[in-house]
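#struct-queue
[09:14] JT: dropping the first one here, sequence first, then the structure tokens:
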Amino acid sequence: MRLWLKDSERRPDPIPAATDDRKAVIVGAVGWVIALIVVLATSAAADWEPTVVWTCVTGLALGAILLGYTIRRAR
């Protein structure tokens, strides 16, 4: 086993796989929406913890930014 190959001995790089990243981002954003709904529903009866709510809101905001990026990149 050799750790280094000459350029003439290398096989060509494979072509990149075509993926739709928007689906993964949408699934993640839906997960954050569900988490926010659960946190808001359970925090009404228990002690209010705004850190958890802000975590869900931040996840949604980052998901929206990433969705915009992936849509623009797909064009």
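[09:21] JT: and here's the second one, same format:
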Amino acid sequence: MEFTAQQIAEYTGGTVDGNKEIKVSNISKIEEGKPGTLTFLANPKYTNYIYSTNASIVIVKSDFKPENKITATLVRVDNPYLAFSSLLKLYEDSKSPQPSIDEQAFIDKTAKVEKDIYIGAFTYIGKNVKIGKNAKIYPQVYIGNNSTIGDNCVLRPGVKIYDDTIIGNDCIMHSGVVIGADGFGYAQRTDSNYQKVPQIGNVVIKDDVEIGALSSIDRATLGSTIIHRGVKIDNQVQIAHNAEIGENTVVVSQTGISGSTKIGCNCMIGGQVGITGHLIIADGVKIAAQSGVGGSILEKNALVQGSPAFDVGKYRRSYIHFRNLSDIYAEVENLKKEVENLKNK
């Protein structure tokens, strides 16, 4: 597909500085720009590339003032990164598969499937499943009985949705995501063996949630594990049974959230964070990467780091001493020897 600078400006709410009729048909990095491609400048570190790029159109901030000559046509917008991301979405949509149902897909006769959706080969759709409008279900997806998939959802190859799962509108599940597997629940017997506790709840995922590849969200023991609207989950994240993630919270890769923990809205949880069970994390909390959280964080907008995690300012001040601990120890030992010498004298 080809777009002119004027069309891009109209779509992004920007203005054109240069040739309004110049066309692009592909995307490029600003440092690797080629004729006929579109790029953007959002990070000031890349400003020098705008004077040498061969890209035909560059999206820039409205108040950008060039210091040297620029050959590319500029589209000026309020937020270049946001504008470019919306254009990437448009580009991605143009490459999406057209509505069709592959003859090698299995759809139970009791399932209710809209006509304008895409279902790939070797997908299994169980009893009483409901799939909304404009959904894209890629090959080898499994959707268990009594599950609901909302409008405009995308389930990438190999996604597994267990029975009774409810997924809202505009959600994206990447390859290898598992929704609704059994929670990790066992009762210890007197002989130190373990008896499995049946997990008979489900998972509820609200609108506009994206879940990265190979992440898993466990079904509740009773009730529901709930992922609220706008949550973004990275690759390889584990969310245990009966956990609840508040609206617009971001969870980065390799994080593990234990059972029955309630995380508030607008939180940011860094990579490889571990959170134990039955905790409360307040709204707006930020947890730095590789932190271990063993207690509730009730202060809104707190920023914590470390294992066990505590206030990030205190952590950074303490870290200065952590790094010098061996030197401090040696100095203390020398002082002890000097004190002993003084005592002997």
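[09:30] RK: nice, looked through the second one.
[09:31] RK: DSSP finds four helices and 40 strands in the chain.
[09:31] JT: good to know. The longest strand covers residues 57-61.
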